[in-house]
Amino acid sequence: MGGRSRAAAEMLAGRGFKEVYSLKGGIKAWNGLVAVGPESQGMGLLTGREDQGEALMVALGLEEGLRRFYAALASRARDQAAQKLCRQLAEIERRHQETIWELYQAGPEADLGREEFTRRAVGTVMEGGETLEEAVAGRLAQGFNSAELLAEAMGIEAQGLDLYLRLAARLREAGAKETLLGLAQEEQAHLEALGQLMDELPV
After folding, report:
1. Which residues contact 116 (CB under 8 A, 6 or more apart)?
2. DSSP code of 144?
3. CA pair distance 29, 83, nearest whole angstrom
């Protein structure tokens, strides 16, 4: 295991993850993109008093923002393969939203319809962090190929995993905390999948 992948494994193990996957060639091509920024970054999204439904609302907003980000990037890709990958990554985020919505519907606080739940979720996140416009303007601004897109996506997933863990630590309600920890586990699986996609790219 290389230096970066070993450091990533140690970080995840320190956060309580029992199974930490090597990302093989994908992590070697990561080019240093890691979860960075102050400990307070993104923490304004939750006060700590939220229930499970409110925590899921924040999570859905984050995933919808990322779906829109990948969709907006497609027109900037240098080739059709990168455009297709943008659409694939956007679809992954859409499916993750379905999982979050199902968790909300199964919970005790499910008193909103899908449209209203999504509207509130997106509004909450946009007020608490980087806007879609800022993200699109600041990332991959000069165009990109598939490898560059995947490297950026791996950095974003690392940020998302770290944020879910930090938000979960702030929550007081046990159900809400466990829900965000479960979503962090899914972000870990996303990192593994992105590494596999990187390995499959032609040399």
Report:
1. none
2. B
3. 20
- The first and second tokens of residue 137, run together, are 């303007």
Taking the C-alpha atoms of residue 71 and residue 107, their distance in angstroms, rounded to an integer, is 30
Q: What is the rounded distance in angstroms from the CA atom of residue 167 to the CA atom of residue 170?
A: 5
Q: What amino acid is encoded at 30 in this protein?
A: W
User: Has residue 23 got a pLDDT over 50?
Assistant: no
pLDDT at 136: 77
pLDDT digits (tens, 9 = 90+) for 86-117: 999 999 999 999 999 999 999 887 899 999 99
pTM equals: 0.76
In whole angstroms, how far apart are CA 52 and each of 113, 160, 181? Answer: 16, 18, 12
pLDDT digits (tens, 9 = 90+) for 130-144: 677 777 778 887 889
Instruction: Using the structure block, give the residue that is written with the tokens 């879609």.
Output: 132
Q: What is the CATH number of domain 51-200?
A: 1.20.1260
**Residues 6 or more apart in contact with residue 122 via CB below 8 angstroms:** 61, 64, 65
